[in-house]
Each structure stands twice: as C-alpha cells, then as structure tokens.
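Q: Start with the shorter request: fold the first protein.
A: Done. Sequence, then structure:
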Amino acid sequence: MSEPVVYLNDGFVPASQAHLNIYDLGIVLGATLTEMTRTFRHESFRLEEHVRRLLRSCKYAGIELALDHEGLVECTRTLIQTNSKLIGPEQDLGVVHFVTPGENQIYAGSAGKSARLTPTLCIHSFPLPFAAWRPYFEQGVHAVTPSIRHVPPQCVDPKTKNRSRLHYWLADKQSQAVDPAATSLLLDLDGNLTECSGANFVVVENDTIFTPTSRNILEGVSLVTLRELAPELGLGWVEKDLQPYDAINADEAWLTSTPYCLAPCTRINNTPIGDGKPGPLFGRVMEAWSRRVGMDVLEQLKNAD
C-alpha cells in the first residue's frame, strides 16, 4: 500500500478515503475528545496510558465506544505497524485518536438523510515534523502570557483532553503578535500559570521541579514521565500555584509534550529565564529520557529532515 491507513468507525480505510460528515458533532459543536501518542523507533510509547485516558474522557462525556481498551490498543498497534512501513528508520509517527458523539440528527435530517447516531472514532497517524520544533532546542521557547485565560475547571474538567480549543487559537494569535515564534502560556482567572497550548509547563529552582496544580491542568503523559525521572536525577517534585514571577525568577523552565518530550523555555514575556539559554539540568533530564526510550531524543530532534 502506497498511502497510510486510517481506522474510522468500523475498520481500516486508506487515508484518502477517510472523511467526516459535515453534520458530525465534532464539527458542529467542536465536541471532540482526543489523545496523541508517539513512537520511538516505530514502537509506541505509553500507548496503554493514552488509551486509558481517552476512555476516561469518554466516560466523563457520556460517550460509549464499541471498542474497549484492548480493542483500541490492538487497532492502534496495527495502524502503527502498517504506517511505519511508509517512513524511514530515522522517522517516527504521531498517532492521534479522536472521538465525537456522532452526527447531529437535526442537521442531518434537514438534509434528507439519516444521521449516524453512534460515536465517531478515528485513529490516524502522521510523520512527526521534528524540524518544526528544532528552534526550541537551538534558541529555547519564548512563552508569552496572553489576555485569553484558561478554561476554568468549573466549566470543563481539564483532565478531559478535548479539541474545544478556540481559546488556544485566540491566545496564540495574541502571543504571536508579540513574537511570531512565541508559545502561549495561559493563566487562570486568578493569574496562576496553567499550561501551554499543547504542552505542560514546569519551573525548576534549587533542584526542585515545580508544576501547576493538577486542578488546573491536563496532567500530560510526558509530565508523568518527567515526574518518574526526577528521583533518579536527585530532583524534588512540588505541585503548587505558580505565577509568572516564579517562572521569571526560576533557574530553568521546561515544556513537556508528547512529540518532543521536553523543551527548554528560555524567555517569558521577553524576560530571560536564568541566563536565557537552555540550562544544565535540561541536558541531564534529556539524557535520562533518552535512556528510558532507548534512543537519543535530542539527536533525532536536531538532525531529522
């Protein structure tokens, strides 16, 4: 097969044949739950944890899938095995799961057709574009705190990973007006740090990693990996409310995210963090991360086409 496959609703189809109806509630309402996993050397990393979180999100949203945990894992591994044959040995895949409640019956009915009332399930993949994140490791990330605020946990529990992300898009528009290469770091309604658009954010001071409270953020699988690595590196771990002041005055600050694992944040709102360069602890953590996944993560990020 010369093109990747996609799992859509009832089985695998070529990517060119995978389409959603315009009446799908993921489009009509933005009601979409999602997960993203990546591979290292074409093997999935912590896939079962991503699938468990997807199913917890579905339960929270009242969506019941036809596939259970084992079925989702099996389909995902089949997709990875198939699509990995289409990329080079130095490349890896990002694997996306998304679920919607199905189609809007009223909209579909007005078009003279029957709606698909069962949930929409899609699993697809793409080659990870490491070059897009290369500047993070050459200059570091510039985080900007826009006026757009994080969705309060009283509205949607942040432990539910979803694609209702207009606020992220608006935040990025504001941040990129300050610096076209900036990443948005959203504050909550009280001015506390929460998370970036697509990554968790932590600060490091006196050999302790500080993370915003889990009440306010999606605890990413990469953040969990960092927490597991911390003890072997002699680093403490504290969860607390943090403000921009804490990031500005930290020794180091990092972003954690599935595609690139860990990235140094060297500026916040145009103010350098530390000496404005990736710090020594960042390098130590990346070495430990590389040992965990069995390959040099930074080498892949810096050298891949």
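Q: Next, the second protein, separately.
A: Sequence, then structure:
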Amino acid sequence: MMQQPKVSIVIPVYNASRFIERCVESLFAQSYKNLEIFLVNDGSTDKSGELIDVIASSQPNVMTVHQENRGPAVARRSGALMATGDYLMFLDSDDTLEPNAIEFLVRKAAEEKLDAIYCGSSRIISKTVIPSPPSKKEGVMTGTEMLQQLLDPEFYYIACMCFSKRKFWDANMFVENRNMPSEDILTNIKLVKKCERVGLYNERLYNYHFVETSLTSTRRYFKQSLWKQYFEELHKLLDGNEWTQAIRKNEIYTFGFYIDKIDVSDEWYKKMLKYNVSNYSRKIKVLHALLHWPWLLRLCVNGNRWRKRMLKK
C-alpha cells in the first residue's frame, strides 16, 4: 500500500498560552494522520514556550523551535525550512482547522494534480460562527488566474488557509520586514507565480477566532509610509503592464480603508489622484473621488462601518 503524503504544518507562537492547546488539539483531531507539526516560539514572554515543550514531549510528530522575537513571517520561515513533508501549510496559533480539513486538501491535490489550494473559512466571534462569503470563481485555475483573485481587494480569503507543495518554499518566499502591512499577500503572490494548477474551493475548513488583540478585530491602520513600501514590493513582483490597473485599484482601496492619516504632500498620493479610473468599478470611482477630500473620505467610511454594525444588531 502506497504511503500517504506527509503534510507539514507550521504554527508561529507568540504569547499564545491561552489559545495554543485549542489550536494543536484541532490538528490531533484530524482524520488525516500523516502530519508533522512545528511550533515556533517567537520570543514569547508568557508561558507559551514552556507549554509547547510540554505538548511536544508527548507527541513524536510535534517539534518546537525557540527564537528571539522577529515577527510571524520569520517564524513561519524557520518552520518551513525545517519541514520535510510533501505539502506545507501554516496555521495561526489562535485558530483551528475543521476535523476533515487536511484529508480534503490532500485528496483534492491528488485528484486534480494541484500545486496549491485555497479554501474558505469561518470567523468565530464569542461563539458566533460567521461563514466566509463563497468565491464566485471556484475550481481549478492557473497560477496567473489565482494571482488575479489575490489582487482583487474585495476577494475574501484567509492567507494562512493555503495548502501547497513543500518544494516551492525557500527563504526568499518570506518578507522579513516585520512592519510591512499585508506581508502575507506578498508571500502568496510569490507562491502562485510558481504554480501551474491552483484549486479554489468554498469548503470552510479554517476557523478564524477573533481575539481582542488581533489585527483585524482592532481595525489597526498602518502608516502611509509603510503601505508605500508594500506597494514598492508589489511593483517589483509584478512589473508587467497587465497588472497596472489591479495594483492601482489596490492603492485606492488601501487609501480608502487602511490608512488613518493621509499625507497629502506625498508624491505617491498626488500621483494617485491623477489615475484614470473610468474603467473601474463604481465603488473604486467613489473612493477615488473622495480621496480629494481625506476628511470627507474618513467620515463616509466610518459612517458606513457604523451603519453596518447597527444593522447587525
């Protein structure tokens, strides 16, 4: 009987003593058993380091790594470079997987000869489960087609919920600048550029647990200068003219929703105001128009977020 492919799972751990056992238990409960698990302690100051050593002491397929605090991207790199599996995936320490997740991913990869797979997720807030919206484009696609999905700012996915062949992962896949916003998107762009066949499925296999200190739950904004670095890196990865419109759409979307204080003296901002958006969606056109008056843009965005919260109550 042919041996099942080995799957390596890398979990960055930073001050996660409240969550890490729940996370790891979801892996022990997997219907698919040929796993190796790397718990990378990224300089935690709580009991996380001790806790993961206790977990690993009773589980032969669990390995721990202890390093100084350098951010989740470097922690993922440390685990990825040690991985010996046929496939590799990442899991955040406060999240969990559905019991059939790995079995589904391995089966789909074999059936469709896939290099990478992206799946749906559920957000869990105070035990309330909110399923991710289904992707309009589901099934097998080329790496270029998946890249187009990743560049759509309204495409919903959890970056960790990517399952791919281990051979694609080297040290250059990771962004070392720990202050870089959306570094996981840059990493996934690097990945799909290497892929010939990618699967995108709506099965919700990843459970994203909201906690008070999480980036998304606090709606943390990044400085304009850091986003500028992000887009400089994006341009380096995608230097062809066919990506110009997609990148500009992302720039406008970012200024609309993820930059708190817009520096109107910045040449990047002035250049963006001159973009021709006649072929863009209505939402992007509105955002672009509001960018001429940043105070009004922020007022409208915050007002719309407040309205949505009220409708959910």
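Q: Describe the second briefly.
A: Residues 213-219 have pLDDT under 50 and may be disordered. The first helix runs from residue 20 to 28.
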